Amino acid sequence: MLFRQQVKFIVLSCTLFIGVGWLLAFAQEKKDVPEGKVNIEESTHTKKAEIIHMVKPPYPVEAKKQGIEGLVRIDVTVNKQGEVIGTEVRSGPKELREAAVHCVRQWRYKSLDVEFKVTVVVNYELGKKKEASKS
């Protein structure tokens, strides 16, 4: 009987140890996700468009490794309920476009009771220039 309890304790301890190891590894992976400087500007020729839910575009890993920066300009069509129903990239580095569009499509605007368009500009900036000028 005592032997069985010891075996259960060892198995549970090992399981817990492995589980904690996986959690720590996952937390480290999330911590290593690059965060470039992403400024979001918005302009519209209709009424004031108010964002009520925004997903911040991540800096694509490969673009960051290659030092790619730039502005991604996206024309966004929003329906009466404030949902993004269409996006069209006007300009920007191709390596940054997908990440910007993917997040902008998840945004929600305050309802204006009319369909409207806005132009969103996502600025991907690594900040190397400032660091270099300090040296």
Overall average pLDDT: 75
CATH superfamily placement of the largest domain: TonB
Question: What's the CATH class label of the largest domain?
Answer: Alpha Beta
Low-pLDDT regions: 14-35, 130-135
Radius of gyration: 23 Å
- The largest sheet has its strands arranged as 1-6-3-4
Q: Might you state the CATH topology name of the largest domain?
A: TolA/TonB C-terminal domain
Strand content: 25-35%
Fraction of helical residues: 25-40%
Helix and strand pattern: HEEHEEHEEH
Structural class: alpha+beta
Verbal overview:
- The chain has 4 helices and 6 strands.
- With 135 residues, it is α+β, with helices and mostly antiparallel strands.
- The chain folds into 2 domains: 32 residues; 98 residues, TolA/TonB C-terminal domain.
- The strands form 2 sheets. Strands 1-6-3-4 form a 4-stranded antiparallel sheet, covered by helices on one side.
- The chain is flat, with a radius of gyration of 23 Å.
Can you give me a brief rundown of this structure?
The chain has 135 residues and is α+β, with helices and mostly antiparallel strands. It contains 4 helices and 6 strands.
Write the layout of secondary structure elements.
Elements: H1 2-31, E1 37-44, E2 51-53, H2 61-65, E3 70-78, E4 84-91, H3 94-104, E5 108-109, E6 116-125, H4 128-134
Antiparallel strand pairs: 1-6, 2-5, 3-4, 3-6
Structure characteristics:
4-stranded antiparallel sheet, 135 residues, TolA/TonB C-terminal domain, 4 helices, 2 domains, 6 strands, two-stranded antiparallel ribbon, alpha+beta, disordered C terminus
